[in-house]
Automatic annotation (TrEMBL):
Any Gene Ontology biological process: proteolysis
Originating organism: Pipistrellus kuhlii (Kuhl's pipistrelle)
UniProt entry keywords in alphabetical sequence: Disulfide bond, Glycoprotein, Hydrolase, Protease, Serine protease, Signal
UniProt-recorded name of the protein: Peptidase S1 domain-containing protein
SUPFAM superfamilies: Trypsin-like serine proteases
Molecular-function annotations in GO: serine-type endopeptidase activity
Any Pfam family matching the protein: Trypsin
InterPro entries, sorted: Peptidase_S1_PA, Peptidase_S1_PA_chymotrypsin, Peptidase_S1A, Trypsin_dom, TRYPSIN_HIS, TRYPSIN_SER
Superkingdom field: Eukaryota
Domain (Peptidase S1) ranges: 1-215
C-alpha cells in the first residue's frame, strides 16, 4: 500500500518506488478509513503511470516521483480536493511546521498487515537537505552524502515519522490558510527513530516535469488534459491564490 495526492481531477502524484511493474492498480480517493467501503470514498482505476525518467535507488534515492493518470476524472467535493502545488522557485524554510498523513505502520516493528483503520497524521519540522545530510552522516558514521538536492527532510522531536505504507503520501504545510504540498514520502532509516529525519521528494523542484508530463498526455489524448490548481507560492513561503 502507498499514498498519493490528487493534483488535478485526473492526476495523482506519488513516489516512483511505489510502482512495481505492470500491476493493476486501483486508487481510493476521498476517504479517511482504509476500508474500501468508506462512506465518502470512491475507487478509480488507473489508465497510465509515468515514472520520472531519472529515478534511481542505488547508493542514494533520486527523483522519487511518479504520476498516475486516472481512467476518469473525479468530481471535487467537500471530501475530494486537489492539493496546492508550489511554484518551482519555492523553498520551504527550515523549522516550518508541516503535516504528514497516511495509513502506514504505527511502529517500526509492526507487521506490514498491522495498518491503522483511520488515516493518521503527524506534525513535523522541515530540515533542508544540507543539514539533513549532516545529521544522517553523523548518525550512520559515513562521510558520503545520502540526501541530494531534490529532497527535503522533516523531523519530530516526539518520534513521529512516516513508515512502511506511507510512501508516496503528501507532506503539506499551511500558508495563509491554504495547504501546500512540499514533499512526497520517499525514504528513511527505520521509523520514528529518535533524531533520524525522514526524507521526502521536494515537489517544487519537479513542477516543470509534472506540467510537461500532463501536457504530453493531453497532446496524445484529450483524456490527459488538465491543469494544476491555480495557486502561487512565492520563494519565501507567501501564498497567493488566483
Amino acid at each position: 500500500m502507498c499514498g498519493g495526492s490528487l493534483i488535478a481531477n485526473r492526476w495523482v502524484m506519488t513516489a516512483a518506488h511505489c510502482i512495481h511493474g505492470y500491476m493493476d492498480y486501483i486508487l481510493k480517493v476521498g476517504g479517511i478509513h482504509v476500508n474500501p467501503a468508506s462512506k465518502n470514498a470512491i475507487q478509480v482505476p488507473v489508465r497510465d503511470i509515468v515514472i520520472h525518467q531519472d529515478f534511481r535507488m542505488l547508493t542514494t534515492v533520486e527523483n522519487d516521483i511518479a504520476l498516475i493518470l486516472l481512467q476518469f476524472p473525479v468530481n471535487y467535493s467537500a471530501h475530494i480536493q486537489p492539493v496546492c502545488f508550489p511554484e518551482k522557485r519555492f523553498m520551504v524554510p527550515t523549522d516550518t511546521d508541516c503535516w504528514l498523513t497516511g495509513w502506514g505502520k504505527l511502529k517500526e516493528k509492526d507487521s506490514k498487515e498491522a495498518v491503522p483503520e483511520l488515516l493518521q497524521e503527524a506534525e513535523l519540522k522541515i530540515i533542508r537537505h544540507e543539514k539533513c545530510n549532516e545529521i544522517l552522516k553523523k548518525k550512520l558514521g559515513t562521510r558520503f552524502d545520502l540526501v541530494n538536492k531534490g529532497s527535503v527532510c522533516a523531523l519530530s522531536e516526539l518520534g513521529k515519522d512516516s513508515c512502511q505504507g506511507d510512501s508516496g503520501g503528501p507532506l503539506v504545510c499551511e500558508f495563509n490558510n491554504t495547504w501546500v504540498q512540499v514533499g512526497i514520502v520517499s525514504w528513511g532509516i527505520g521509523c520514528g527513530r529518535k533524531g533520524y529525519p525522514g526524507v521526502y521528494t521536494e515537489v517544487s523542484l519537479y513542477r516543470d516535469w509534472v506540467i510537461d508530463q500532463m501536457n504530453l498526455a493531453s497532446s496524445h489524448d484529450s483524456a490527459g488534459l488538465s491543469a494544476l490548481p491555480l495557486c502561487l507560492v512565492l520563494p519565501l513561503g507567501v501564498l497567493v491564490t488566483l
